[in-house]
């Protein structure tokens, strides 16, 4: 098998997070309703999560690569995919153990694939979750409704 064939099989992103609760809190801050959808964009600098409501309210959550114990980005172009924010938060909560730090690995194999969550360094149990992703609708990163350039309410959370 050629080197390029091996590289094609590598996931576009593999990252490991030591403390889940901070991520859960940040995601919960931009989750306005139970069935909230989000768009994630992956890059060599980190992950950007965007949620919007009725085309008039938008929130962005920036997760810098420095937040992760491990951050291996292997994509040729910036992957973007949609997922259910509610399911993502609930899955992360399943990994959370009170008064105990449970590291998890997050893996995105590639387009039209499931986001994989897996507990690491756990002697007692192995927890895995797969979250269905979808091709996102076009998301306006910065709204501009009128020629005057008035923008709707936007807030940003940076970790």
TrEMBL record:
Its main location: nucleus. One of its GO terms (biological process) is DNA damage checkpoint signaling. The keyword Cell inner membrane does not apply. One of its GO terms (cellular component) is checkpoint clamp complex. Gene3D superfamilies: 3.70.10.10. Pfam families: Rad1. It is found in: Nucleus. The keyword DNA repair applies. Keywords: DNA damage, DNA repair, Nucleus. Belongs to the rad1 family. PANTHER family: CELL CYCLE CHECKPOINT PROTEIN RAD1. This is Uncharacterized protein.
